[in-house]
Structures are given as structure tokens and as C-alpha cells.
Amino acid sequence: MEKERDLFFKEFEEKVNEKVSSLELAEFRADSPIYKELNLNTYRPSIWGLLVFCEKNVYYYVAPQESYMSFFTKGAGRTEEKLLHISEFSDIKFSLPQKNFFSFLNPEISRSILMSYKNISGIERNVTLILNRKAEEVFLQLKAYTESN
Q1: Residue 63: left if φ>0, alpha if ψ -120 to 50, beta else—which one?
Q2: Cα(84)–Cα(29) distance, rounded to whole angstroms?
Q3: Is residue 56 within 8 Å of 30, Cβ to Cβ?
């Protein structure tokens, strides 16, 4: 497993010309206009990928993959490789969802990070990132990157 991770780091560092610091598995949830604007062609309401923290920038990386349906229909369900340079999004902000008395009914709330940014037309867009673990530490990392740029 460590060998594959090191190989991924090496290949990713060659793509972005920057050293990788850490990775975080995250589900990217947005509405259709956002997927279209970001050229994230998907038939699903969310996309799994990696938040990749580098020395100076943060990226969201979606690996190419085939779905079960593509076995039956050529090209159906195929996800192309995508790389979003999150650090370059305009007016980007990260926050944690507000918790209330009923938050325990939604176990994802403690693993969620809200991201807002302005698109090329100046319209505010909102995305939710769902992690595999509690979000506070990753939120602080993201916040540090946005404050340093």
C-alpha cells in the first residue's frame, strides 16, 4: 500500500510541479450547474476523489474509473481524470455546518466541510465535501491554505 501511495505522490508531483504534503479522501457534492462549470461530467449526484494538500496549493483530484454499467455499455459510467486547483477558486471560503440539537440525526454533519466560491461570472457557488473522518482537522488545513494566499 505504501508503494502505491509513493508512486501516486511522485506522479502527482510531476503533474503539478509541487511536493505533496498529505491526502484526504473526500466526496464532492454539488448541483448540476457547478459540475458543468467545472467540467466534471458525472451521472451521479456526487464524485469521490482526493483532496491533495501540497506545499502551496490544494487540489481536488478525481481518478479515472469505470463503473459497473460500463461493463455492459461502452463508455457508460466512465469518469475521466480531473484535477481542480482549489487554491485558485475566486473568493473561496470554507466553513463547518452549524450544529443544532437534531444534528445527531445526520451523522455526516461532523464529517462535512462547506466550500463557497465565486464562478467566472461572479455568482456564488456552494459545494459540500464529505470526508471519511471528522472534519475539524481538514477544515483547519483548508482554512490555513486560503489565509496564506
Answers
A1: beta
A2: 14
A3: no
